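PT: before anyone asks, these are the final sequences, not the draft ones from last week. 965 residues across everything. Please model them as a single complex and drop the result in this thread when it's through.
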Amino acid sequence: MATLNAYLLVGAVLFVCGVICMATKRNGIGVLMGVELVLNGANVNFVAFSKFTSLGLDGQVFSLFIIVLAAAEAAVALAIALNFYNNHLTIDVDRGNKLKG
Amino acid sequence: MTETGELLRNLLMTAWLLPLAGFVVEIFFGFGLFSKNPRHSKGAAWCAVGCIGTGFVCSLIALLVWVNKTGGHDTYEADKGVEKGWMSVIADHNHGLHPHGDGEHAEHSEHEDGDKDHAAGGEQGHEAEGDTDSHDDKDAHAKPHNEEASIEGGEWQLASVTAEESEEHSETEDSRSAAEFPTAFSGRLYTLGEFGSLIVSLDYYIDSLTIVMFAMVTLIATCIHLFAIGYMSDELTDDYVDHFAHTSDGKHVHRPGRFYRFFAFLSLFCFSMLGLVLAGNIFQVFVFWELVGICSFLLIGFYTERKSASDAANKAFIMNRVGDFGFLIGLMVLWTYFGTFNFADINDEGQVTGGLFSMISRSTEGEDLGNVRVDEDGAVLITSPEGEVLQDADGNNRTIPYALLVVAGLGVFGGCIGKSAQFPLQTWLPDAMEGPTPVSALVHSATMVAAGVYLTGRFYPMFTAEVLLTIAYIGGITLFVAATIAIVATDIKKVLAYSTISQLGYMMLGLGVFGWAAGLLHLITHAFFKSLMFLCSGSVIHGCHHEQEMPKMGGLLKKMPITAICMLIGVLAIAGCPLFLGLHFSGYHSKDAIVASALAFSEKNPGHFLLFALPLITAGITSFYMFRLWFMTFWGKPRDQHVYDHAHESPWIMCVPLLILAPFAWLCAYGGDQGDLYVMLTKDAPAHIENGVTAVGDGVVLPEIQEMYNQHEAAGLWALTSAGIGFVLAFALYGMNLVNLDEMKKNLGAAHGFLANKWHFDDLYDGLFMRPAHKVAAFCAWVDRTIFDTTLHFLARLMVIIAQWDRIFDEKVVDGFVNLIASATGDFGERLRVFQTGRVRQYVMFIVVGVVILFAVVFSTFPG
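LR: through. Structure below.
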């Protein structure tokens, strides 16, 4: 029987992978994938806590919210990516530095 | 009689208000409404003539109604007591009215049915009804005198008529106060404002004096309006060249014609003058007094570009203010002690219920006959119309100190001195001749200056013997001084101006020596012949192309016969010439009446002999200077051929008014003291003049009216002799040139200079008031420049220095602090910019590093 720590380890690995993916990928889609990893890392933690602690169904409901939110976020982000491509003929996020102060 | 009252009020109000409407139309629309070429339009003039002409028609109807009503009753009243006769008249006319009183109402409606019977039944019926009504009156008398009630009730009033024949009077104390106002209507037109117990309102007061004045003013004004259409016609142009005014580069002033404006001012003047005459309270008189003053100012200064004209306008206005100051003081005293400005409140039954005239009552018998009633301390009692002493809130008798009653009288007379150009304020009137001649005729000889005399006559019941003596002496000095100056004046209008002052002096003297009707008769006759003479002089000036100097005229009789004959009529009238089978000239009657009054007065008071001598001598002087004027202008050979050659008779529109006025100037006083005008005036004479006034202490005796009548023969002879001498002298000097005038002038140089300089009055005032005023002004200017200006400059400089310091503080400290905060914030932001790279991946790294640091900090801080 897997322990809570095992689940948390998987969540942490997923999270770190996601963050590294976000920080290193210059491709916008790659960054998006990193974001998904980070979110799912957190989801694993919620589900694990709901199973092993008194959190109960709340943790699972919360993870469902996150999945829905991730889907919505992906839709918006892909639309941004398309527009970004239309304007820059690339989706290299480093090219989009208009927010430079 | 009630219908009559309403009719009279409406007629006179129409005559009064039409000129105001005319003024509004002329001043706002007169320029351009009537024609395409506005400066050439006579529309405004015809509008003014229409207004005043209609006013004259209204006044004439009012006069006829008045004569008809009052004249008709005299005949059957004569054999009855005053009270009954008076009451019967009331009963006769009172039933159409709805009395506001409670008790009387029922009684009156009972009578109403019987009224027609009474009318048919004749005298008997009247008498019977008169008796019943007099009961009502006693009831009314018993009620406490209530001023406010009387005001409410007095929306319009009823006249009472009394026979004026003194022999037939058997008067009781009660009827005495009623006889105080034999024939008068009064009432309220409009309440302007109420300030506590002070009510400022427009009232009317109609008695025979009002009616006569209305007829006189409107007739003369109509004639003068017509005359002015011709006289002012050179203003009908877009480019009027004023030959008497120069611009700074020495050229004549060019300006647009101001024809319409002249007539607008004339209309406004007529409105003001008629309002003054119609006024029912002394405050309203004051308001219209000032209005005629401002009209006079506007008209004297009509040629405003001429410095002499604007100076003269200022002079007239300021001199009048001096007199009006006295007027104001009088008003204050009256208000303080009497609490009302109304002349007389008359209720629906024709009874006097209050008002100034009834608040001073006079003894009707005994040693102090005719004097005001006083209490044991010498204070004058304030009484109700029934002769009962009024009480104040504490139950004490209301009184006014005798001295203050004198002050009130002198104060009001002070206003009259200013307005009527009496000594010592007479100097403005000759200067006022700067105005156009029709103005001189209307405003400065016939009507406005007579307002002072009118007010003196109107306010007569309030004057004590001391005030009357002052009036007499002021008049005496004025008439003599002005007449002597007129001898040497060479400007035709100036001669007439001084003559006006002199004649006004006559009126004042007449009033002052108790010749009430004589003074006012002279006011009327003088208005006619003086306006006639002024218009004639205007015609001469117009005909001679604005030449006013008599030494350049002469022989104009052939050139302008109508003017010359009309002027001769005026001259004969003012000289007091009896002529033509009893058709004496009006001046003969009026001047005779005044001299007779003066003679009766001086016989009673030998110490005041001057008051008879002055008018007698001046009658001769008057005759002399008036014939001098006529001979110099119209007689003999032309002195200046150029003027003579260009002289011409005036157009018809200027001659017609002369021809209208001439018969009035000749015959308006027809019959003298038996004539219609005189009898009508005496109907409303203040009650106490009939029996005279006996002396109190060292005071003067004022003669009773019968004594004046007795002097007429003697006085007439004296005055005629005096005038005859004047005429002979004038004829010898100026008609036949018996004496070389230049030689004479040289021999009498000192006297001539003295008179030609107007008794040095102008120099005296110059030295007394002008120069000291200039000195004071110079001193004030010096104080202003040195002390005040220095202080101000010092303060200003101090402020500048303080301001400079303040600026430094502001710039360095306040601004510095604010700038410091701003620049610090700016620097901080500049530093933060570094982190805002715009790279998403970098941001992620920041977040990661931030989270790690956060964890590290949290775990190291809370290790447990």
